[in-house]
UniProtKB/TrEMBL annotation:
Top-level taxon of origin: Eukaryota
Pfam families: Trypsin
SUPFAM superfamilies in the record: Trypsin-like serine proteases
Signal peptide: 1-19
UniProt keyword list: Disulfide bond, Hydrolase, Protease, Serine protease, Signal
Start and end residues of each Peptidase S1 domain: 27-255
Protein name as annotated: Anionic trypsin-1-like
GO terms for MF: serine-type endopeptidase activity
Cited InterPro entries: Peptidase_S1_PA, Peptidase_S1_PA_chymotrypsin, Peptidase_S1A, Trypsin_dom, TRYPSIN_HIS, TRYPSIN_SER
Length: 325
């Protein structure tokens, strides 16, 4: 009885942890993000350079794309890729878990989990995102925000100092997306977003980063930046791994300290909610989708956050796992 009460209290105390961005309160007129706007955004580095994004989902796990691996170091609380980031922390990667059915040719099941070398402490600049639960629905037109440090267009890098970029794109249903990109290329494990006229998208270097939508005061991750044909081209939406399809896979692999899964539904309404208005008709910085495929081929409503009372022991080695459902 006492243990059940403790768990209940823990759930209630942590219910508001995921998907909260206290510093994300402005009307957007450009693409540069203010510090702390997307506190779950992660930057994956290899050989000292950013190459992919990710999202913090609890105090020791980061969600990313399978084609982004391996990442040797993860940065959280970062805004710029050059210069000083007063609020950032970094961690090595202790364990990599790749979906066993990931197909680098089709990009199906493009999802992976990174366990950090030690836990992180939440603050206004570092917080977990909520994840879309398995019964979530994101109909066509759902406003979705994409973020990253990727190219500003194909082959053109984000200019110094490399400020985190953001833009809003609407969801495109899979039937229409398959018509645009080629029948069968978009599986039920994927979702699409973009403008018919193009101009806003993700691109090289944005892979693995989150696509989120707001419900009431919570930001819920619907997708993981995965692939696309070019960047921000007309009639060519970006394709994202559909997070809601992987609730069981994520839960089974994390085991304890589960992230917050929230059901997103267009029927849900709130009397007040934060919103972003975009006057920029230009672009987000296209995020890579499929940028590192060949590399890998060759190689909360509730959040259940329980901070361990044990100290994590630093590991020099990194575990690499391939797991299915």
């Amino acid at each position: 009885m006492w243990r059940l009460t403790c768990v209940t209290l823990t759930l209630l105390m942590c219910a508001k942890v995921c998907g909260q961005a206290p510093l994300n309160t402005r009307i957007v007129g450009g693409v540069n993000t203010p510090d702390g706007s997307w506190p779950w955004q992660a930057s994956l580095h290899r050989s000292g350079y950013h190459f992919c994004g990710g999202s913090l989902i609890n105090n020791e796990w980061v969600l990313t794309a399978a084609h982004c691996l391996p990442g040797l170091r993860v940065y959280l609380g970062r805004r710029t890729q050059q210069g000083v980031n007063a609020n950032e922390i970094s961690r090595n990667v202790r364990t990599i878990i790749v979906h066993s059915s990931y197909n680098s040719n089709t990009n199906n099941n493009d999802i992976a989990l990174l366990r950090l070398s030690s836990t992180v402490t939440f603050n206004n600049y570092i917080r977990p995102v909520c994840l879309a639960a398995q019964n979530s629905v994101f109909p066509s037109g759902t406003s979705s925000w994409i973020t990253g440090w990727g190219d500003v267009q194909s082959g053109v890098s984000l200019p110094s100092p490399g400020i985190l970029q953001e833009t809003m794109v609407p969801v495109v249903n899979n039937v229409q997306c398959n018509t645009l990109l080629g029948s069968g290329s978009v599986t039920s494990n994927m979702m699409c977003a973009g403008l018919t006229q193009g101009g806003k998208d993700t691109c090289q270097g944005d892979s693995g980063g989150p696509m989120v939508s707001q419900q009431c005061t919570a930001w819920i991750q619907s997708g993981i930046t995965s692939w696309g044909y070019g960047c921000a081209n007309p009639n060519s939406p970006g394709v994202y791994t559909s997070v809601s399809r992987y609730q069981n896979w994520i839960t089974n692999n994390i085991g304890q300290n589960l992230p917050g899964f929230v059901t997103f539904s267009p029927s849900n309404s709130c009397s007040t909610s934060l919103s972003k208005t975009l006057s920029q008709t230009h672009s987000l910085y296209p995020i890579n989708r499929g940028y590192f495929n060949s590399f890998l081929s060759n190689l909360m409503t509730y959040i259940f956050v329980i901070v361990s009372l044990q100290c994590e022991v630093s590991h020099n080695s990194m575990n690499y796992l391939i797991t299915g459902l």
